Amino acid sequence: MEDCVVQHLDKISKDGSFTILQISDTHLFSRADDKLLGVKTADSFDAVLKAITKQNRDYEAILVTGDLSQDYTSESYRRFADMIIPLQKPVYWLPGNHDDGPLMRRIMPEFGISSARNIIIGDWQFVMLNTQVYSVPHGWILPDELNYLQECIISHPDKHTVICLHHNTFELGSAWLDQHELKNKEELLNVAYSNKNVKLILCGHVHQEHDFEKNGVRFISSPSTSIQFSLNSYNFSLDSIGPGWRYLTFYPNGEIKTEVHRLDKDLFVPDFKIGGY
Ligand SMILES: [Fe+2]
User: Fold this and answer.
1) 110 Cα to the center of ligand 1, angstroms
2) 137 Cα–ligand 1 center, Å
3) Dihedral sign for Cα atoms in the order 182, 162, 84, 227
4) pTM exceeds 0.90, yes or no
């Protein structure tokens, strides 16, 4: 199948499980010193990467769920690649609303980063979807993407499926953020709910951690490596909680265990006076 890679497990654990690192919403700029709402995003990403390295955890690959860039520039993607490569793990990505997907597809291979969209690892497959509508914050999934997802599910009936995308497909209880969700989420959810192999929908975008289950599908979102948004806020609101990352461990029986880690909240404090994003 087009865009499909099979990644063999480095070390097969006794129980057949493996772990993935999720990184999201790095929001890097062409210039290292530029700030997003008061936070130097290159510095916060660097601190996250250093903390991950220090943890010395065993994981197979890195999934990056969009908004790698804040300014759509090739320099920001080169910065991302330069920073993530030292982790020495396979990296897979998808575009967010702040990204230039075609530009990423040109630049990432220069750094040996795959643009694969269907990744098979052990008993699982990960499908990386594009829900970007260029230069607007909300998402939309096109029929071609839904067809691609269905093709992946049909092609690998023996694999548990993780749908990865940037935009949230569930309401957060934050009115200002909910308007930026995947607008036609029902079309994606129909596919997810009607295929029992779909176990998880994993997203970024909301700069908040969520984890719940509905109709047999788990929904997980993850923190940004830069700024965080407050939970349950009607209007735009920044949170003082620290930048974060997530590990997800996948088991052959379809079970998923996950944990979020964060930097200390005093290290990268946003400018709370700024009233918009
Ligand atoms: Fe973002």
Assistant:
1) 24
2) 9
3) positive
4) yes
